[in-house]
Amino acid sequence: MTNSLRPHGQQRAPLPPAQTPTSGVPSPRPPQTPHAGTTPAGPDAKPAKQRDAFFDNAKYLAIVLVAMGHSWEPLTDHSRAAEALYMVVYGFHMPAFILISGYFSRSFDMRADRLQRLVTGVAVPYVLFEIAYSLFKKTADDDPSHPISLLDPWYLTWFLVALFVWRLTTPLWKVVRWPVPLALAVAILASVSPDIGDDLDLQRVLQFLPFFVVGLCMKPEHFQLMRRREVRILSVPVFMAALLVAYWAAPRMSSAWFYHRDSAQELGVQWWAGVVMTLALFGCSMVLTACFFAWVPRRKMWFTVLGAGTLYGYLLHGFLAKGSRFWGWYDDYTWLYKPLGEIFVSLVAAAVITALCTPPVQRAFRFAMEPKMEWAFKRDAAELARSRSKSKS
């Protein structure tokens, strides 16, 4: 059986039971039935499972916050308020993405078709964009010495590496007795291990791991709890308190803690601070993520369709985000550091990321984001048997 959310009144598909799709987050792929893109034939065929607007809305709103956060980064050295807002948003936008990734990975196993989707939807985009980002840095930043290395993800591609590793380990987390405490223990050990190094950005992979495992353990009723009216009301003072705490902490605390890419020793503190901060940030991130989900619309909105293209927006906006630094846009227009300028930057970031998630952009870059690559894989034995039976009939 599957724990995925099911629209009211929809009947289960005939045996074998349909399983929850394993699309990643951000993900370009809509949830699919076993034969994606086809309409069931025959008078007894059941209607295809519909997307849940809540998750598409959550993915779109989270990717907008990601883009805004990247646009605020140059402003944080000049504005304490911008730094506080930056810290609050970084406290939950990636944890929210990762949690949803885990939730939609619950049915992942080592079945051939799922491994193929993992390769074409995660591994191949990683290779292509890691090369593209490296070439972009060489030229736009005038840095010819920057290496092209698939072992050292640069900028946004770390998420694809992490998603690949997390999903491969999904069967393990489904059989252990206490998956979340174990994942937290792994994250804590990573936070106090400076020798892990930069290969495959393993610090981030391991320190963000608990959010993915929480998603694996969640059920539809958990999201229903977060949608309750009292949770929405309570989330308002919680967010206000978080902003006040962040405003106080801004000059006293490094925002690098929220990136989860360094050990405690690399951040210049004692090892035990890594233990404390990992647990504290995990708790804060889970609370803020719940508050974020509480305000995500449940119904279909004008931007719901964009939730299927968040991987496009995520990876493509990185060229503009980094280009704005390489080309000195923030230095050329000093008015951007004033309150109205900060608002302008936020609106531009939201507009750009929205445009990059639209269907025309998806069609233009589908060759890189979700290539079919049928030539690279053996055909499934059951599919071959079906093809032979059809040819004989």
TrEMBL record:
A Pfam family per the record: Acyl_transf_3
Region (Disordered): 1-49
InterPro entries xrefs: Acyl_transf_3_dom, Nod_factor_acetyltransferase
Transmembrane annotation, as ranges: 84-105, 117-136, 148-166, 231-250, 270-295, 302-320, 340-361
Name by which UniProt lists this protein: Acyltransferase 3 domain-containing protein
GO MF term set: acyltransferase activity, transferring groups other than amino-acyl groups
Residues of the Acyltransferase domain: 53-357
Organism: Streptomyces montanus
Keyword Transferase among record annotations: no
Keyword match Cell division: no
Organism superkingdom: Bacteria
Keywords: Membrane, Transmembrane, Transmembrane helix
